[in-house]
Amino acid sequence: MANDQTAKVAWQPGDVPVAARFDEAYFSRENGLAETRHTFLAGNDLPARLRDGFHVAELGFGTGLNMLALAAAWQEARDSTGQGRARVRFTSFEAWPMSGADIARALAPFDALDALARPFLAAWAQGARRFAIGGLDVEVIIGDVAQTLPAWPDQADAWFLDGFSPAKNPEMWSEALLREVGAHTAPSGSFATFTAAGHVRRALAAAGFAVERRAGYGRKRHMSIGRLTNAR
Ligand SMILES: C[S@@+](CC[C@H](N)C(=O)[O-])C[C@H]1O[C@@H](n2cnc3c(N)ncnc32)[C@H](O)[C@@H]1O
């Protein structure tokens, strides 16, 4: 797979972006931000666990909506708990980065994130893949995650597993890749994902996580969360 291939995007009513390659929306048509908060933030017990040096990682950067939701939650938590100078890290893996214009269009409906989206869009338009958004130090690693994650020298305290659905994007949910997620998770680290597919849950358990099923957002009946126990 060639690196740095810009994603081809189609648009659904309400300016919801759809990846042409996968024929699937980047986020929920109902309310992308509420889904992110429910699935990825609450699913990882965030922002409560955030502290200086905490590291969140993500499979699938897409529009950056999850990153901005995390940055906003961290800004609020940091201010209200007097951790004014503390920094959180966010690393996301993406094979087909979206153009700045498409990201701007996708994020435009999220007024509440506007102040954080502006510096992100300015950095992205200049080709930056490492930048700071409020108290978040971000790195977006470009390339097929089957290659980039095994080569990643770090570990995350919390994972957002946000590939497209396992049926349309099986590479993001393979046993081998989820084993890499386990191997790149700090002790007692966590994951959250919108899917409750049986083979994904089994692969995450095999990767060392104690996996639980939870109520999903909106029309999704179930999602999955887990903590690393290393009982592999
Ligand atoms: C559901 S979208 C992620 C949405 C994103 N988290 C957001 O906040 O907008 C899934 C993403 O995974 C990426 N992706 C799919 N297969 C991949 C692969 N093999 N390696 C890296 N990224 C991949 C897609 O290009 C897409 O951006």
Structure description:
The radius of gyration is 16 Å and the shape is globular. The chain has 232 residues and is of the alpha/beta class. The model has no long low-confidence stretch (mean pLDDT 95). It is 29% helix and 27% strand. The two termini are 31 Å apart. The strands form 2 sheets. The chain has an 8-stranded mixed β-sheet, sandwiched between helices. A hairpin with a 3-residue loop joins strand 1 (9-12) and strand 2. The protein has helices at 32-41, 65-80, 100-107, 114-125, 145-148, 175-183, 198-206; strands spanning 9-12, 16-19, 24-25, 55-59, 88-94, 130-133, 136-142, 156-161, 185-193, 209-215, 222-228. Helix 6 (175-183) packs across helix 7. The structure holds S-adenosylmethionine (SAM). The site of S-adenosylmethionine has 24 residues, from helix 2 and strand 5.
- The SSE order reads EEEHEHEHHEEHEHEHEE
Give the N-to-C terminal Cα separation. Answer: 31 Å
Considering DSSP H and I runs of 4 or more, what fraction of the residues is helical? 25-40%
DSSP summary, beta strand count: 11
Order of neighbouring strands in the sheet with most strands = 6-7-5-4-8-9-11-10
Number of H/I helices: 7
Rg of Cα set: 16 Å
Q: Poorly predicted ranges (pLDDT <50, ≥5 residues)?
A: none
Shape: globular
Q: Which structural class is indicated by helix and strand composition? A: alpha/beta
Beta-strand content bin: 25-35%
Topology:
Layout lengths: L8 E4 L3 E4 L4 E2 L6 H10 L13 E5 L5 H16 L7 E7 L5 H8 L6 H12 L4 E4 L2 E7 L2 H4 L7 E6 L13 H9 L1 E9 L4 H9 L2 E7 L6 E7 L4
Parallel strand pairs: 4-5, 4-8, 5-7, 8-9
Antiparallel strand pairs: 1-2, 2-3, 6-7, 9-11, 10-11
The structure holds S-adenosylmethionine.
The site of S-adenosylmethionine (SAM) has 24 residues, from helix 2 and strand 5.
